[in-house]
Write a structure and sequence with these properties.
Blueprint lengths: L9 E6 L7 E6 H17 L8 E4 L15 E4 L4 E4 L9 H11 L3 E4 L1 H14 L8 E4 L6 H11 L3 E5 L8 E3 L5 E3 L4 E7 L2 E2 L5 E8 L10 E9 L13 E5 L7 E2 L5 E2 L4 H4 L4 E10 L2 E8 L6 H15 L4 E6 L14 E3 L17
Parallel strand pairs: 3-5, 3-6, 6-7, 7-8, 18-21, 19-20
Antiparallel strand pairs: 1-2, 4-5, 8-9, 9-10, 10-15, 11-12, 11-13, 13-14, 14-15, 16-17, 18-19
């Protein structure tokens, strides 16, 4: 979501577009304010007070990557928020993160699923019952049902998932009944396959036309994300908003550092480098990444290579070796989707985490 963007007279936001290509989105302060307003309404759906404390895990680099002792977080008093690094999570630091959340006592935890998952598992395994927000809000990654149940059990609160993007063309939020609602004042959402609307219960691509950004309006913008169209537009919550049955999204692996940190959402690094057509990160050894890049007709410059190396090292730490390789094409998965992160070392990143304790 765009709530992390700078408030400037005219902002330029880089996004991956529909296939990983860098795309500059222009907007003004009024657009960002409207975007924040919609998120505030979503917080109200989740039962979070307007000025309630919020703990946030996102893609920001909060502290230096080589830092080996807490705090791995910073306070934002103006927003009544605690901003926590998603890049320093490991088995060695989970107790410190759990203590920080306990001390902050957030009304809301706003997080990528992959960032909050290890903390939730740790809390359950250690019997920690001091992290009790009113709600958890997740975004940016597919929220699997098992992870939703994990959060509900670990934090004893409801979980509200939502779908949005830097392009500010679509906003889909869950109500208290668990239904995904398209926010119709934010933009029109179509679910299409081969350019045609899918039927109820069928899967297609989210194609969106945004209403809130007059500086750069996107019309029928193909997001590259998948969703299941709802079978009806009736929800027991009473909101007469179009319904999406499920957000399928993009299912990307995470990179696991030699120290055991699980790092996802690395795509913002590439969005800031012009001339990239597509990219893919392949972890082929515990301490090695091969970064494949397809350029848009030109050779990657020395400065661009150094920028990518620097930004990746900034997030992954000094022990990870990184090679950047220019390729002519990046192969698709069997589904036809482009997997932007492929982990060949850890087939299932979740298997590295301790299992949930059995319920009594």
């Amino acid at each position: 979501m765009s709530r992390s963007f700078r408030h400037t007279r005219l902002s330029e936001i880089h996004t991956g577009g529909t296939t990983g290509r860098p795309l500059a989105i222009y907007c003004d302060a009024a657009t960002l304010q409207r975007n924040y307003a919609f998120f505030s309404r979503f917080r109200a759906w989740a039962g979070v007070p307007e000025k309630g404390r919020t703990a946030v895990f996102a893609g920001r680099t909060i502290v230096p990557p080589g830092q080996t002792s807490p705090p791995y977080w910073r306070r934002n008093p103006a927003a009544n928020a605690l901003l926590l690094s998603s890049y320093h999570l490991s088995q060695a630091t989970l107790a410190q993160y759990a203590q920080a959340l306990t001390s902050f006592h957030p009304a809301l935890i706003d997080s990528y699923p992959s960032s909050l998952e290890p903390i939730a598992r740790f809390a359950l395994n250690q019997g920690i019952e001091t992290i009790r927000p009113r709600a958890v809000i997740t975004s940016s990654e597919t929220l699997h049902p098992s992870v939703r149940r994990l959060f509900e059990e670990a934090f004893a609160c409801p979980v509200f998932d939502h779908y949005g993007a830097a392009e500010m063309a679509a906003l889909i939020t869950q109500c208290e009944r668990g239904t995904y609602h398209v926010n119709p004042e934010f933009g029109v959402v179509e679910v299409l396959r081969d350019g045609k609307p899918v039927g109820p219960g069928e899967t297609g691509e989210i194609v969106a036309t945004g209403f809130i950004n007059p500086v750069m309006s996107l019309i029928r913008y193909a997001t590259g994300d998948q969703a299941v169209r709802g079978a009806s537009d009736h929800c027991p919550c009473g909101r007469a908003f179009p319904i999406i049955e499920q957000i399928v999204g993009r299912l990307d692996d995470v990179v696991i550092t030699p120290e055991g940190r699980r790092v996802g959402r690395l795509d913002p690094i590439f969005k800031a480098v012009a001339g990239l057509h597509e990219t893919r990160i392949v972890q082929d050894q515990p301490d090695h990444l091969q970064v494949e890049v397809v350029t848009a007709g030109s050779v990657l410059s020395k400065d661009q290579r150094e920028s990518l190396q620097r930004e990746l090292a900034h997030r992954l730490g000094p022990l990870m070796r990184i090679d950047i390789v220019e390729v002519s094409v990046i192969p698709r998965a069997a589904s036809g989707k482009l997997r932007t992160v492929v982990n060949l070392v850890h087939d299932d990143a979740r298997s590295l985490e301790p299992a949930l304790p059995e319920r009594s």
